[in-house]
Design goal:
heterodimer, A: alpha/beta, D-Maltodextrin-Binding Protein, domain 2, six-stranded mixed beta sheet, 45% helix, B: mainly alpha, MetI-like fold, 14 helices, disordered N terminus
Chain lengths: 435, 311
């Protein structure tokens, strides 16, 4: 008996000690500010596995540290896969860095969650109004992030292939219509020369789904959410147009045009001639050009009725709301807003520089250049993903619904279910929304 | 200590005092040795579990400007109306019900085979054990390639049947996705349990087999009356570890199918992780985990009851 009581006492003491230790850890972190030690600021980036872009980040920081003696910025790089988790964990421990990069569509969520602070970008060399609208993240009238570049969705094919099967090569001013596109697919399929008539790139399960396929939905006239008030997805995501989109999306599989699940590297399939038309992004343009030269056809997205659409917003930079040295963080961000860095980022990542002036200096993107089409697409067709803190939730629901539709789910039923889930989430969380 | 009071009375008082002091020192030492383990357990098991239970009754979110609020059984009410939860539950039990006997049985067969005293048996032991030491993520990616519509498995099927049978698109077909994952999981895990069975087999005294041989027992009776009873402790261990592993099915799903197609491979743990992280609904994910904990606990208790030591 005696030893049992003692055992109980001992374990309670251990438990208490552990609890006290945990409480102590929590307590020391909750001083309200972090990310800076005096005038030394911490900067987080998702670029650990991406040497080219990381190189530019390091260059900007080096130049900033050399340009003045007051502040010093220190970089910490994370692999992209675990970056968001690290930020969320740091935020709950109140250990956010002063400066951090953030994927565009997540900005409203992080601003709403109190991670990000509004920015004053008026002191930078490049004016905010000169940027592509999709590269500046605003939430409730305030700016929370800006990016140096954007990317554009596009279709790749080969001019020789399209000519051979008597298919008109679409232009920015006159993109394919839905019927023309169906016609082209039917001709290419009938040739029997291609493993994939169309490759939508369905093998990648991440944010690619909402990024790549919600613009198709928008081109049909649907959307992820009713953007008039951001209070419901009803009508937008389960209306007639959305159902049309769902049926078309599934028909790509049932007609044998597109694989239900693409291979791990659809871009290689295209370059190896297995795919006739590939739905992809501007980032593949250089590699495709290297392979096919002037035979490469960069096609604008199809107009399914409501005009061609592409997704907007890529990685952007912001400042945490708990930053202990906001002046320093602002100084860094404004310093980074120089045309040469816009150029460097765009060159390093094969992306569209966020300003016209910078784009003119990136080979291929200048007026008349073969990649200039991407800049035009980003200016004319880009739709940012819904500016609401609910976006991460909407994104997962849309991905799953689109996957279900592609696997043969009843379109109307799947979309109705998605709407009820999204509406439920919107109702229980009472988000404030709007750009 | 309530044992042997008579023995203690015989000892002179001074000796008893020394003994008590020694015992106290011993228990202090024991305390010192056990404290790192207790600390880690409390820190990483007890506290998270208690937190999860508490969060299940709140509307806690991963990212939120407002602190979590107590919402009573709201999460559980939503859960009861969630069709995906029932599908996930069904898939999880389907997986467990097939995998537990299949993996346990196959592991026993392999163990019996590699227990034979023939040359080169270590080679086979190593081969069967190789998948176990390979990361599940790697195995899942490789098998995703094998299961492709034009992957190795379908090519084999086509060649073996002289092109008469064309295999399905394994992971993209709602009726074949789960069986495909089951086969892969058994292949990956069977080596581990083979080693456990093998250890059990080697604890059975050889003279029992010799006695059985003298009695003229057939191979089957020998297995049934010597081997099988001799493995009772091992059996319980294998049963419980496979069951727990099966219920925790997550990695394969996350890498290979993401719960699809049409929810045919969604499992409870996968749903909880997706809800808690991707969808940021910490409270709801905790509720899923809590309900699942109760269900798994019930299954474990039944198993314990069935495998208890019978006198």
């Amino acid at each position: 008996m005696e030893s049992r009581t003692r055992r109980l006492a001992v374990s309670s003491i251990a438990a208490l000690a552990a609890a006290a230790l945990v409480a102590g850890c929590g307590g020391s972190g909750s001083t309200g500010s972090s990310g800076a030690d005096g005038n030394t600021l911490t900067l987080w980036t998702h670029n650990a596995g991406n040497a080219a872009e990381y190189g530019v980040v390091k260059q900007v920081v080096k130049d900033f540290n050399a340009s003045q003696s007051k502040y010093k910025v220190k970089i910490q790089a994370f692999p992209q896969g675990s970056y968001n988790d690290s930020v969320v964990a740091a935020a709950s421990a109140k250990k956010l860095p002063c400066l951090l990069d953030v994927d565009g569509p997540n900005v409203p969520n992080w601003a709403w969650g109190g991670y990000l602070a509004p920015l004053d970008l008026s002191k930078g060399q490049v004016a905010v109004k000169d940027q592509l609208p999709s590269t500046v993240a605003t939430y409730k009238g305030k700016t929370y992030g800006f990016g140096f570049y954007d990317v554009a969705l596009t279709m790749y094919s080969r001019k020789s292939v399209l000519k051979k099967y008597d298919i008109r090569i679409p232009t920015l001013d006159k993109p394919w219509t839905k019927d023309e596109f169906s016609d082209a697919l039917a001709k290419l399929k009938a040739s029997g020369k291609f493993k994939n008539t169309l490759d939508l790139g369905t093998g990648d399960p991440g944010e690619w789904w909402p990024y790549a396929y919600s613009p198709l939905l928008q081109s049909f006239g649907g959307d992820l959410i009713d953007r008039s008030a951001y209070k419901t997805a009803k009508g937008a995501l389960n209306g007639e147009n959305a159902v049309e989109w769902g049926k078309w999306f599934r028909s790509m599989v049932t007609k044998g045009y597109a694989p239900q699940k693409s291979s791990k590297s659809p871009a290689d399939d295209f370059r190896n001639g297995k795919t006739a038309i590939q739905w992809d992004g501007s980032w593949s343009a250089q590699a495709n050009t290297d392979k096919f030269g002037s035979d490469l056809a960069i096609l604008p997205p199809v107009d399914f009725g409501d005009g061609p659409k592409i997704g907007g917003a890529s990685w952007q930079w912001g400042m945490s709301s708990t930053c202990a040295n906001k002046e320093g963080a602002q100084a860094y961000l404004n310093f980074s807003r120089q045309t040469k860095y816009f150029v460097d980022f765009a060159k390093a990542t094969n992306t569209i520089a966020a300003t016209d002036a910078a784009a003119q200096q990136v080979k291929g993107y200048e007026t008349g250049g073969q990649f200039n089409i991407f800049l035009k697409e980003a200016q004319k067709f880009a739709v940012v993903r819904p500016v609401t803190p609910a976006y991460p939730y909407i994104s997962t629901v849309f991905s799953k619904t689109a996957m279900d539709i592609m696997a043969g789910a009843d379109v109307k039923g799947a979309l109705d279910q998605a709407v009820s889930q999204i509406d439920n989430n919107l109702a229980t969380n009472n988000y404030s929304t709007g750009s | 200590m309530s044992t042997r009071p008579g023995a203690a009375a015989d000892v002179p008082p001074t000796r008893r005092a020394t003994q008590r002091r020694a015992r106290r020192r011993e228990s202090l030492a024991a305390l010192g040795m056990v404290s790192p383990a207790v600390f880690l357990l409390v820190m990483f098991i007890v506290i998270p579990v208690v937190l999860a239970f508490a969060l299940a009754f709140t509307n806690a979110r991963l990212v939120s400007p407002t602190p979590a609020q107590f919402t009573g059984v709201q999460n559980f009410r939503v859960l009861l109306d969630d069709p995906l939860f029932y599908k996930s539950l069904r898939n999880t039990f389907y997986f467990a019900v097939v995998v537990v006997p299949l993996q346990g049985g196959l592991a026993l067969v392999l163990a019996l085979l590699v227990n034979a005293k023939v040359k080169g048996v270590n080679f086979f032991r190593t081969v069967y054990f190789l998948p176990v030491v390979t990361s599940m993520v790697v195995v899942s990616i490789l098998w995703t390639l094998l299961y492709q519509k034009t992957g190795l498995i379908n090519e084999l099927i086509s060649h073996l049947t002289l092109g008469l049978v064309q295999g399905p698109d394994w992971l993209n077909n709602p009726s074949t996705a789960m069986p495909a994952i089951i086969v892969m999981s058994v292949w990956q895990g069977v080596g581990f349990h083979m080693i456990i069975w093998l250890a059990g087999l080697q604890t059975i005294p050889q003279d029992l087999y010799e006695a059985a041989d003298i009695d003229g027992a057939t191979r089957w009776t020998r297995f049934w009356h010597v081997t099988w009873p001799g493995l009772s402790a091992t059996r319980t261990f294998v049963l419980i570890t496979i069951t727990i592993n099966a219920f925790a099915l997550f990695t394969q799903i996350s890498v290979m199918t993401q719960g699809g197609p049409l929810d045919s491979t969604s499992t409870v743990v996968y749903q909880a992780v997706r809800t808690g992280y991707s969808q940021q609904q910490t409270g709801y994910a905790s509720a899923i985990s809590l309900v699942f904990f109760v269900l798994v606990l019930a299954v474990s208790l039944v198993q314990r009851f069935l495998t208890r030591e019978k006198d």
